[in-house]
Amino acid sequence: MRAHWRCLALASIALGFCLALGAPAQARCVLLSGTADGFDKETAVGRAQSALAEEVDQYKAAKRLGAVTVSAMRASPNPYWRDRVSNNMLCFNVWCGIYKPDIVKKSSYTMCWSGVVSPYVCTSGAKLCW
């Protein structure tokens, strides 16, 4: 019976060490986004993804982060001239529903809508963890 309690005590101590050492290893994450416009979808998407990449670099520099992971995450649309983007603005031309504007890559999630001045406006989003 004494050995049983000794094993239980050692197991509890080991569990305590595992929990104490595992706590600092938890990742911290933030959602970042970049928005841009263009006269065609390819230009707007490319500019939005570039704006997101710049945002990631600036955040890393400001927080003095080393190795990070960047994964695709849908961000809220960030329009220039409107307060918000309604669902009908996420459809293009008469074939709304056939043309899907979302572009998902390993490190970015991009959605586009028709702009006030430019035909296309896109927001790219990503989750940055360290």
What features would you describe in this structure?
With 130 residues, the chain is an alpha+beta fold. It is built from two helices and five strands; from the N terminus they run αβαββββ. The longest helix has 23 residues, at 41-63. The radius of gyration is 23 Å and the shape is elongated.
Number of E strands: 5
> What share of residues are in beta strands?
15-25%
Spatial separation of the terminal alpha carbons? 46 Å
Return Rg in Å: 23 Å
Secondary-structure topology with pairs:
Blueprint (H helix, E strand, L loop, with lengths): L1 H21 L6 E10 L2 H23 L5 E4 L30 E2 L4 E5 L6 E10 L1
Antiparallel strand pairs: 1-5, 2-5, 3-4, 4-5
Please sum up the structure shown.
The protein is α+β, with helices and mostly antiparallel strands and 130 residues long. Helix content is 34%, strand content 24%.
Descriptive labels:
130 residues; 34% helix; 24% strand; 5 strands; single chain
